[in-house]
Design brief:
The complex is a heterodimer of chains A (273) and B (309). Helices cover 73% and strands 1% of the residues of chain A. Chain A has 273 residues and is mostly helical. Chain B folds into two domains: 71 residues, no CATH class; 218 residues, MetI-like (MetI-like fold, Orthogonal Bundle). Classes of the chains: A mainly alpha (273), B mainly alpha (309). Chains A and B meet through helix 3, helix 4, helix 7 and helix 9 of A and helix 1, helix 6, helix 7, helix 10 and helix 11 of B.
């Protein structure tokens, strides 16, 4: 392991800060995110509320709702959806990758062809069709994201498993007549672990971007649920008069994704060394 | 070579058939398709009537056969909302999407390749770091947000281009750059890595010893070899771009296929959604086939080795 240097800090700190803010978000929100203040609509950042004189840190929207509070609530929901989707798709991808890579033959052919077919429908369209059929809502969005995400994990795991099968220790375990279950569980899985984890961290940022697109298009979770993509969608109508309505949630998405990607790359480099 | 092409063609057709089946099953899985297609307050009588007109009272096997037959004949039925042939609706919108996609991919290839080439030639200097950081940033911004930022700067503040629609020729610039933002990053990255790898070859060292400068060597000797992985990445990115087009068209109210499909979802116009997704997937499969053929031309090793995928 390398020494911990300032370069590590640059890659780790944004992730820790962003994660902390998003997790405790609703606790530090100064206002109720759905509270409408009709006298203080479209306030610019740092302007004061009419009456109470409190500061609207990031301004208010067209209904006078506090954007800072909405960002904090929306962030938690967006991250929750993405992490849940990555857990589900990661598990599916891991199991399929292990089976395909280890057994090969027809299960491998079957799953890889299935993956090819799925990838030939652009994922956003697949998501739109599934949501059009089964309806919107948080659980359905998580399911849709999971369905579109398993292929890349399965492919990465599979190719690693195929490499591992060629190693002497796996060959030795096979010669000793250990059951497949034991070989996969004790000899293959621990060696797939680090690759799998980096892959899934980077998947989280992909899922955040993807679910934000769905919310932006209005086919994700219902509009009454606060999401950053949804806020952007509503804010776009006020670009001329109140640009921060769209700019702030967009920047937040970018910051979170940058933080996760930096962390993912740091982890990748660290585990590889 | 002919054998490889034939095999690849067959593979494409099987993939398309699988896509058709998946979409058929998805729409049927949801229970009663007639219920899905009709407004919430539809009467029992409406449901029965629509079932009969769509042939939904037949068995699943018969329906599947009918569906495959009509798709092959190019008969995608009638839009429930517009009351006109789905195919003519799509044909109306297709040129706008294709124009946008072609302009965007050209921008992405030029900008992405140049960034990658500059990075590789100036490896480990500040120029390389700047370009690599830009690529990283580009990948982290949601495409629709890039679009909105462009609108904010170039349309709202500077009044250089219209905020939406495709009334004037310059109107394509913002949506095309937005759509190009995604593939630029992977193209630049792959180009950089691939060039650096190729620059390590012995013939490059020989050229350098003969006194050719690096720019000359890259453009005249290395680029063609280095293009191979870039072509693959471009092929892979086309799928992302088609998906991105749906979002980009919504941001800019660009009257293309993507916008049509999103509106169809809002209006629960299932025949239109189904046809739109099938046609876009078909395009994607055809493009991928094209990329593989191009690969064959660029890399003679594939010709000799047969199917190396």
């Amino acid at each position: 392991m390398k020494h911990f240097a300032w370069r590590d800090g640059v890659r780790l700190l944004p992730f820790i800060v962003v994660l902390a803010i998003v997790v405790i978000g609703p606790l530090i929100a100064p206002f109720d995110p759905n509270n409408q203040q009709i006298k203080s609509t479209l306030l610019a950042p740092f302007a004061h509320y009419a009456g109470s004189g409190r500061v609207a840190l990031l301004g208010t929207d067209e209904l006078g709702r506090d954007i800072f509070s909405r960002i904090l609530y929306g962030g938690q929901i967006s991250l929750l959806i993405s992490v849940a989707a990555v857990v589900v798709s990661g598990c599916i991808g891991l199991v399929i990758g292990l089976i395909s890579g280890y057994l090969q033959k027809w299960p491998d052919a079957f799953f890889m062809r299935l993956g090819d077919v799925q990838l030939s429908i652009p994922s956003i369209l697949l998501a739109i069709v599934i949501i059009a059929v089964f309806g919107s809502g948080i659980v359905n969005v998580i399911a849709v994201l999971a369905v579109t995400g398993w292929v890349s994990t399965a492919r990465v795991v599979r190719s690693r498993v195929i490499q591992l099968k060629e190693t002497d220790f796996v060959a030795a375990a096979e010669l000793m007549g250990l059951p497949r279950r034991v070989i996969i569980w004790r000899h293959i899985l621990p060696n797939v672990g680090s690759l799998f984890i980096t892959q899934e961290i980077l998947q989280i940022s992909r899922m955040i971007l993807f679910s934000a697109s769905l919310s932006y298009l209005g086919v994700g979770v219902s509009l009454s649920t606060i999401t950053w993509g949804g806020m952007l969608n509503e804010g776009q109508n006020y670009l001329q008069s109140a640009w921060w309505l769209a700019a702030i949630p967009g920047l937040c998405i970018a910051i979170v994704v940058i933080a996760i990607n930096l962390f993912g790359e740091w982890l990748q480099a660290r585990l590889a060394s | 070579m002919a054998r490889y092409l034939f095999k690849r063609l067959l593979q494409s057709i099987v993939t398309l058939w699988c896509v058709l089946t998946v979409i058929f099953l998805l729409v049927r899985l949801a229970g009663d398709p007639a219920q899905l297609m009709l407004p919430v307050d539809a009467t029992r009588h409406d449901v029965v009537a629509l079932n009969a007109s769509l042939g939904l009272n037949h068995s699943l096997g018969v329906q599947y056969w009918d569906y495959l037959q009509s798709v092959v004949q190019g008969n995608f039925g009638e839009s429930l909302y517009y009351k006109q042939s789905v195919l003519s609706l799509i044909a109306e919108r297709l040129p706008a999407t294709l124009t946008l996609a072609v302009v965007a991919i050209v921008i992405a290839i030029i900008v992405g390749s140049l960034m990658g080439i500059v990075s590789a030639i100036k490896k480990d200097t500040w120029i390389d770091r700047l370009s690599t950081s830009l690529v990283f940033l580009l990948q982290s911004f949601p495409a629709f947000f890039i679009g909105i930022l462009l609108i904010l700067i170039f349309a709202v503040k500077l009044h250089l281009v219209p905020t939406s629609g495709n009334a004037t020729p310059v109107a394509i610039l913002l949506p095309a750059f937005t759509l190009a933002a995604y593939p630029i990053a992977p193209i630049a990255r792959t180009m950089r890595t691939s060039l650096i790898e190729n620059m390590g070859e012995k013939f490059v060292l020989a050229n350098q010893a003969m006194g050719f400068n690096d720019v000359d060597i890259v453009f005249n000797r290395v680029l063609k070899n280095a293009m191979l992985p870039v072509v693959t990445v471009i092929g892979l990115e086309l799928g992302t771009m088609i998906g991105g087009a749906v979002v980009t068209e919504t941001v800019f109210s660009w009257p293309g296929l993507g916008q049509l499909i999103i509106q169809a979802v809002q209006k629960r116009d299932f025949p239109l959604i189904q046809a739109g997704v099938i046609i876009i997937s078909a395009f994607y499969i055809i493009i991928n086939f094209g990329v593989d053929v191009l690969y064959l031309y660029l890399d003679p090793r594939v010709k000799k080795g047969g199917a190396s995928r």
